[in-house]
Amino acid sequence: MNSSSDQIDQAAEAPIAVEAFYRYGYGGRQMLAIRAPFAMGADGADIIGRAIEADGRRYVVASIARQIYGPIHQGEPFGVELRGADARDESAA
Questions:
Q1: What is the DSSP pairing of strand 51-54 with strand 16-17?
Q2: Which of 14, 74, 77, 81 has its CB surrounded by the most CB atoms within 10 Å?
Q3: CATH value at residue 69
Q4: pTM, to two decimals
């Protein structure tokens, strides 16, 4: 992705506080089950690439995984694949 003055680096924004439930593996990825902090489209584009904060740690959402289809409603549980220093530290544990 090319950087320009009119693009926003979403990972540099203040993190979105989320409620986290548990960690799990899915398709070889390390995932975190969270509760949706706001309503969004089925593809999760509104949260992918954004910084989140869960249990006092900051992560960046790389992708999402869901068992159902359709829009994501506020409060709905779903899985996020994380990237960032904290995500790497915990996957090694």
A1: parallel
A2: 81
A3: 2.40.30
A4: 0.75
